[in-house]
Amino acid sequence: MDKFFAAVSLFRRRKYDECIEVCNELLQHNAALHQGPWELKMRSMTQRVYIDDIEADDDVAEDILDTQTIATAPRPGTSIRTTAAASAAGKATAAGARPRTGTGRPITGISRPGTLSLQRPGSTLGNKTALKTARTAGSARNIRLGSASMFAVGDPTGPLFHISRLHPDKYADKDAISKPLFQYLYYHEGEIRKAMALCDAVLNLKRTNGEGLWWWNAQKGRCLIATGSPREAEHYLRAALNELYHPDTVLLLARIYIKIDQPTAALEVCKNGLEKLPGDITLMTQQARVLELVGNLSASVRRYRHISQLDSMNTEALACIAVSYFYGNQPETALLYYRRILSMGAHSAELYCNIGLCCLYGGQLDLVFPCFQRAIRMATTAELKADVWYNLSFVAMTTGDVHLARRCLRLAIASNGSHGSALNNMAVMVARQKQYAKAKSYLVAAKAALPNCDEIKNNLEFIENFE
Questions:
Q1: Rg of the chain's alpha carbons, rounded to an integer?
Q2: What is the reported pLDDT for 81?
Q3: Is 424 left (phi over 0), alpha (psi -120 to 50) or beta?
Q4: pLDDT score at 221
Q5: What is the DSSP letter of 112?
Q6: What is the pLDDT of residues 61-113, one digit of tens each?
Q7: Contact of 450 with 456, CB cutoff 8 Å
Q8: DSSP run (H or E) holding 432
Q9: Is the separation of the CB atoms in 122 and 99 below 8 Å?
Q10: Contact criterion met (CB below 8 Å) for 338 and 328
Q11: Is the Cβ–Cβ distance between 124 and 145 less than 8 Å?
């Protein structure tokens, strides 16, 4: 028993690997204590790979079998797709003055899960570009394929059980095991269908006994979202909210409306949630994100300001406020917010790149290149290195060093050959040297990377007419 309590203590201190080792010893040598160590090991394995999947995917899915579609041409400001399409086409809208990601989100100081594309239309000659701060993204299935299966290698006790032989009805009436079992199936194994079958078994049993259902309704909705059935998930999440108003359930319901391109409904859900749970940071953050998605940047920034007043350590709110000041031609004020984030211990290539751009527009030229040097040293991925070199080429163009700008663009293209903005700018610089055939090849590659960018199309037509 002393070893079991030691394992519980390790679990509470979040030392999951050590806890699993102690549970393995107990499972090998003491069959009488099978259920306790088995459940504790299952919880530890789940927590080791757990990710908050509420924020793991914020894309807009096209439901081709949706029979409830009313209009295919929504009003301006009520659809995420139309806002993203207008920006990609280069139309002059209120939000179109700022560059956007490939998914249509305006470039802000932080990258949210699901927004993995860092390419954006436009050229540094006309746009000030700020990078983003990376956050973890993924799904339960991706975690299983990438890490959870690797942890199972060398486990002396082997798998906890055979998934194919699992009978959910056997565990439906065991509250102490059913919840950790669901989390293990969903987060560790990525077996969404089995987890949903367990939800169905528990829901059927609890309906018969008249017990509370809100947690299992919410998890059933979570599973339906993961399997691509957001319309069916809405019913279960509404049922969960009727029983208990929980922030996670509200966020899941708002995520459904984002997926089916109904941002107005998502905002209404968040508004109702804030009436029940006033001052909840997660709901306010979701509301600000949706406002940003539909292009209402002023309202989004106001919401972020309210968040920063309630939580002065919220890096997302501080970064988004800083970017709004940056694009509002107030780089000095933006620099104050970025320095605040830096003082909180957030050191990244994106942050140093943003600070360097603020110093450039604020006239503090002596700090620009040291910031970019740190950004280059801290850049890990090829896409991130390309973005840093791309922004550095803009700094060189601003200071009049054309030779340095050309070298930075070459390094950006070498790091990421599909960086459309760098290819476009490189084509312009080559065309100034009257190497039109070479410029055309760069523009063709840029058009393949950013097919909806009007600037690249116009440059390509100009080169073709000139030839």
A1: 26
A2: 61
A3: alpha
A4: 93
A5: P
A6: 444 444 444 444 455 555 666 565 555 554 433 444 455 554 444 555 444 44
A7: yes
A8: helix 420-432
A9: yes
A10: no
A11: no
CA–CA–CA angle 30, 34, 35 (5° rounding): 155
Q: What is the pTM of this model?
A: 0.74
- 116 SS3 class: coil
Count of CB atoms within 10 A of residue 71's CB? 8
Cα 259–Cα 110–Cα 223 angle in degrees, nearest 5: 30
Query: What pLDDT was estimated at residue 82?
Result: 59
Q: How many helices (H) and strands (E) does the chain have?
A: 24, 0
> Residue 241's CB: how many other CB atoms inside 10 A?
21
Helix (H/G/I), strand (E/B), else coil: 171? helix
* Vertex 249: Cα angle to 245 and 250 (nearest 5): 80
- 313 burial type by CB count under 10 A (0-12 exposed, 13-18 middle, 19+ buried): exposed
Q: Round to whole Å and give the CA distance between 109 and 132.
A: 5
The pLDDT confidence band at residue 326, using thresholds 50, 70 and 90, is very high
Decide which of 229 and 159 is more confident.
Answer: 229
455 pLDDT above the threshold of 80: yes
Q: What are 441-444's contacts with CB under 8 Å, separation 24+?
A: none
Q: What is the pLDDT of residues 312-325, one digit of tens each?
A: 999 999 999 999 99
Residue 370 and residue 358: Cα distance in Å, rounded?
A: 13
Whole-number mean pLDDT of the chain?
79
Q: 302, 284 in Cβ contact below 8 A?
A: no
Measure the CA angle with vertex 383, ends 382 and 386; round to 5°: 85
Check if the beta carbon of residue 157 is closer than 8 Å to that of residue 27: yes
**One-letter identity of residue 170:** K
Token readout for 31 is 């069959």
435 contact partners, CB below 8 Å, separation of at least 6: none
